[in-house]
């Protein structure tokens, strides 16, 4: 059952704790900042008044890339990642983007395909993980 959550734009630094807890628990919080964070738009998903999920969006012309989508480990599997992604699709549609893309972990291909993303190119490896570019076209 999908939980009711709210999504709003947030300050870049608010994404770092969620990124760390969900994606890089062995790293320091200072390592969570992306060099381009201050050029992006960041969204936070709040559930029961707690920042529970985050995603960062970077627009270039009429193409948008999202990076570092993360949900607190204790809240994963409740549909929050899907809510964030649907919000991004809607946001990009209203911004007249032609596509929305990400470098997805190969293990998440099914998740992205369910809502209309397609793989682009071949999988590749980075930091001992397999990734593939996935794109949603408007």
Give a verbal description of the structure:
This protein is α+β, with helices and mostly antiparallel strands and 138 residues long. Helices cover 22% and strands 41% of the residues. The chain has a domain at 6-97: Gcn5-related N-acetyltransferase (GNAT) (Aminopeptidase, 3-Layer(aba) Sandwich), CATH 3.40.630.30. It has helices at residues 15-23, 80-94, 109-114; strands at 6-10, 41-47, 50-60, 63-71, 99-105, 118-126, 129-137. Helix 2 links the parallel strand 4 (63-71) and strand 5. The protein starts with 5 loop residues before the first strand and ends with a strand. The mean pLDDT is 95.
What are the key terms here?
138 residues; alpha+beta; Aminopeptidase; 3 helices
Brief digest:
The chain is α+β, with helices and mostly antiparallel strands and 138 residues long. It contains 3 helices and 7 strands. The mean pLDDT is 95.
